[in-house]
Structures are given as structure tokens and as C-alpha cells.
């Protein structure tokens, strides 16, 4: 086996000499100050990750190691040096802790789900993709798709976590898809299916990319990575991932200060994957395609602030309501009910096992759905 590997390596070198095409070996940085578990924890993770595929450059205090070390004295100097090395191209990506990304950039995590042992992308886990919640989650979906493609998933399947705003996000993504954006939805493992995911789907990794708000993603990241170790030591998964944005070039991946050596090791491998796959360029291309599919118009429709004229809407006479209409977001639920009242349809709001619902009389079911569709309250 050793002779075979040496032979293949020599053949690659010979071919490179003959063609005149040499590829620089990818270098991955790792900052080594700031961990709650000390410098050795990070250095040990780097040693676990050692590979013939990439070189590792430590940025921190001097330590006993055969890896390259660029010495710095404190965390501020460490991040300044990291940025210099990235800008100069000396390193291709870097793993660090507590880095401040600009608005519009969020990190895309990578976990191993406990139900099936399947890898799943969490989009996103730190940062702020946009100040509007719905826009942020739609952007998170694109960030997740770009990251999944950069690590070799050619057609990632996307699920939307059932949090506030999920149905509006589903509507936006469906519009993008209808307008030509290449997007494939995942299917929930629950009997009623759909792309809006429940806790069960998190555990089994139903989608390749799970879209959520950043705060929820951060919590899930911590739970997935430390549920076997009690919370103060993250031992499973690949960390909080690379910062991804519409036009962001630095490949900086985030760890928690509680991340243990196994997660540090995996984060370095993740950093290699997104550097080799060039996640930044893929993200740019995804947004070019999304904008061709009316991304800006779709986002404007959910973020514009219109002056609302107060109107006294009279509630129609009460009726028995047994028909359920799902697909209305929790934040729009009461407005959807009033929209039906305005059109002479008695309705009530409720909460089903899969989320918010509007309840109407059986005879008014189809009429109610048509009214809500026309008003943009449901994608169904």
C-alpha cells in the first residue's frame, strides 16, 4: 500500500512537471488562544487533523509541535495576523473563535445527527444575515446551499425548521424556485411530509441543509456537539462553520470556546473542504442565479413597510369551524383571520400539531384558501 501511494505521488509530480501546471498545497490556519480548555486542546486537535491533503499553520504562542507556528502575544494580535495571512493568500482558510462578521455574513454549521449518524448542514449558527428575520432565513437557505455544494453535495435538499417565519420563508423559496432558481426541497420524515421540518427531522437529518434563524441554529449546534459530554465540552461535529455572504471572500470558520479537540480536528477538515470547493465563489454564483429569479423583488415584498390604514373590521356571524388551513405563518395568523372576516368568511385562529392554523366552516374551505392565497398569507 505504501509503495502504491508513493508511486501515485511520483506520477502526479511527473505529470505536473510535464504539463507545467503546479497546484499550491492548501494551507489552513488555526488560532490557538481563547479556548476554555487551553492552548493544548487546540494544538491536539490540529495534530488529530494532520493530513497529506493540506498543511496546518498555528497562529498563537510558541508550542512544542512539528507544525508551523506563527507567534503572537494576544487575541487581538492573533486576529490581525490571521487577517493578514488570509489577505496575502498565505493561508486559504482559518479556524478561530469569537470573530466579528459584518451584517450580511453568517456561519454555516455542520453536525452529525444522533438519530441516523448523518451529516447535516445548519444554516446558520452565528452572525446576522439580515436585520429582517424572513430575509435573513431566505439568505441562510442560499448560504447553506452554497456551503453544501462546496463540500461536494451537488444537489442539496433543503428543509425549513418550524420556527417563527417558516411559512413565509417557504413561500419566498417557492417563488424563487418557480422563477427558475435551482432548489430542491427535502421531505419531513413525519407522515404528513412537507419541507417544514420538526424536531424529529433534526434528529435524523432529514434535509441536507436545515434552514433556521441564527439563534436557534446556535443552540442546536451546541446541543448536537455536546449532548454526550454534559455541555462544557463539545466533542462531536465540525463546528459552527465558515462565514458566508453574498459577496464575502474570507474563509473564516468558527469554533466555540467550549469546542474540544475532536471538533477542532473536524473543523480543520471542514476548512479544507470549503477552501478546496471555494465556497465564496459558489455563494456569489448562487446569488447571481437567485437575482435572475427575482430575489430582490421577493425580498422587497416581505421587508417593505407600508403605512397601514386602521380599519374597523366587523366579525361575521359565528359558525362551526372544523376545516383547518395550514401554511400561515404565526406572525401573520391574526391578520389572516381578519382578512377572511373582511371578505365575509367567519374564521378563528388555532394551533395544530404542525403549527398555526386558520379554522373555517367546511362549506367555506375552498373560498377561504383562495382569499388567503390572493392576499399572500399562505403558499398552499
From TrEMBL:
<keyword id="KW-0560">Oxidoreductase</keyword>
<dbReference type="InterPro" id="IPR003664">
    <property type="entry name" value="FA_synthesis"/>
</dbReference>
<protein>
    <submittedName>
        <fullName>Glycine/sarcosine/betaine reductase complex component C subunit alpha</fullName>
        <ecNumber>1.21.4.-</ecNumber>
    </submittedName>
</protein>
<dbReference type="InterPro" id="IPR012116">
    <property type="entry name" value="Gly_reductase_pC_asu"/>
</dbReference>
<dbReference type="Pfam" id="PF02504">
    <property type="entry name" value="FA_synthesis"/>
</dbReference>
<dbReference type="GO" id="GO:0016491">
    <property type="term" value="F:oxidoreductase activity"/>
</dbReference>
